[in-house]
Amino acid sequence: MTSDKQRKTEARALAAAEGISYTAALRRTAVAGDAVADAVRRALAEDRAEDDITTRWSVPDGTRAHARVVARQDGVIAGTAIPAEVYRQLGSDVVVTAHVQDGDRVRTGQDLLTLAGPAREIITGERTALNFLQRMSGIATTAAAFAEAVSGLPARILDTRKTAPGLRALDKAAVAAGGVSNHRLDLAAMVLLKENHIAAAGGVAAAIAAVHACNTQGIAVEVEVESTAQAIEALRAGVEWIMLDNMSVEDMRYIVTLRGPEGPRLEASGSITLDTVRAVAETGVDAISVGSITHSAPAFDLSLLLTPTAAPGGVPPARVG
């Protein structure tokens, strides 16, 4: 889904962010083939692709066709390997050729993929293939916009676990295609103490102390704080990361001065938009997590356009009119 170079860059960033080995990070940044296959299997089953009555009743068996997947907007593409998996699972002999790679910038009207094969199979798999492409490319395009908004500043944009259920690996691959770093993949990836952990544990210091008592593996610890007082408490308790949640830029800037050159890394979070992200980055925080990249990215606009090339028996399609 992503190139070796992209995966290695993301793995180095992930290893630094979460205090894990480069090898472990590299394994996590690659989109497992079984995750793609499983997502496609579930999508085809949901669509009852084996019983596409509309196509079976309207399109003559044996009709051959050529199709193009065309971009209807500018943006960043992701999910280019998925259409081939869709048609593989349909058991068809549709040939899918990708003309772009994940992470490529595309223009309106550009051909992204071409397909050739039985018209029935192309049409049956169309919506499933496009759903994945539209979601992933929408995420990649949104991620790229956030990355561009902080261009020239050291702060990194991070994604979150606010992904579509069952599609996290694909959502995070799309984020990486857009040039944004993946934060933790799952609950076992690092310790991240959020407001409810803190409330249940009895406060910031108590939560951190409890984690330190159990953390024999040296896993990176991050704690979410909502005030300068909580941030000072976290600085004193000692963690690798502090998340500054829904704070003003003035408070963020103040906490940056408090942490000093050897202090923990600081992550800003909470309702950050394209209009506000650069001001947040200018406070001096190390990272900015943006949930909307995955939970609210608009679908990428694209179309599949089909042209019959041969009727049953190899006869060219009849002209109409």
UniProtKB/TrEMBL annotation:
It comes from the Bacteria. Its EC number is 2.4.2.19. Gene3D superfamilies: Aldolase class I, Quinolinate phosphoribosyl transferase, N-terminal domain. The keyword Translocase does not apply. SUPFAM superfamilies: Nicotinate/Quinolinate PRTase C-terminal domain-like, Nicotinate/Quinolinate PRTase N-terminal domain-like. Coiled coil: none annotated. Residues 139-304 form the Quinolinate phosphoribosyl transferase C-terminal domain. GO terms for cellular component: cytoplasm. It catalyses: nicotinate beta-D-ribonucleotide + CO2 + diphosphate = quinolinate + 5-phospho-alpha-D-ribose 1-diphosphate + 2 H(+). Transmembrane segments: none annotated. CDD domains: QPRTase. One of its GO terms (molecular function) is nicotinate-nucleotide diphosphorylase (carboxylating) activity. Pfam families: QRPTase_C, QRPTase_N. Residues 52-137 form the Quinolinate phosphoribosyl transferase N-terminal domain. Keywords: Glycosyltransferase, Pyridine nucleotide biosynthesis, Transferase. Belongs to the NadC/ModD family. PANTHER family: NICOTINATE-NUCLEOTIDE PYROPHOSPHORYLASE [CARBOXYLATING]. Involved in the catabolism of quinolinic acid (QA). Hexamer formed by 3 homodimers. This is Nicotinate-nucleotide pyrophosphorylase [carboxylating]. It comes from Micromonospora sp. CCTCC AA 2012012.
